[in-house]
Write a structure and sequence with these properties.
This protein is mainly α. Helix content is 71%, strand content 7%. It contains three helices and two strands. It has a two-stranded parallel sheet. The chain is rod-shaped, with a radius of gyration of 32 Å. The protein starts with a helix and ends with a helix.
């Protein structure tokens, strides 16, 4: 199995589908190899000799992107939870209003009966 096949497998699995993939190659340093890497989901493609400092910068950048995405994903989940809670509150409020309106005539009749019963003729 070569790196391209590994990248394809990583992209197919939900757990690893967003994992950044950086190809490092000393074997075939052609644009076609780099294109093939990007086609299977590479985030970057580096050729040997590798500049260690450049690699560290690239990895740090991918980590920052990941952390920002995770922060956004967390914010999205919090907003979705808040929206669900708000919809439940609104639904409860509407439901209570409908219930009050439906039962209003019954309450009015009961109140009228009590008032009649308390009248002395």
């Amino acid at each position: 199995m070569d790196g391209f096949e590994v990248a394809e497998l990583l992209r197919k699995r939900e757990r690893t589908s967003h994992t950044p993939i950086v190809f490092l190659s000393a074997f075939d340093q052609t644009a076609e190899q780099a294109k093939k890497g990007y086609q299977v989901g590479a985030t970057d493609f580096l050729f040997s000799p590798i500049d260690g400092e450049l690699l560290k910068f690239k990895v740090a950048t991918y980590v920052q992107i990941y952390l920002r995405n995770e922060s956004l994903r967390l914010q999205l989940h919090q907003l979705q939870d808040s929206l669900r809670a708000l919809q439940e509150d609104i639904g409860d409020t509407i439901s209570e209003q409908v219930h009050r309106r439906i039962n209003a005539p019954e309450r009015q009749v009961e109140e009228f009966k009590r008032e009649l019963g308390s009248l002395k003729v």
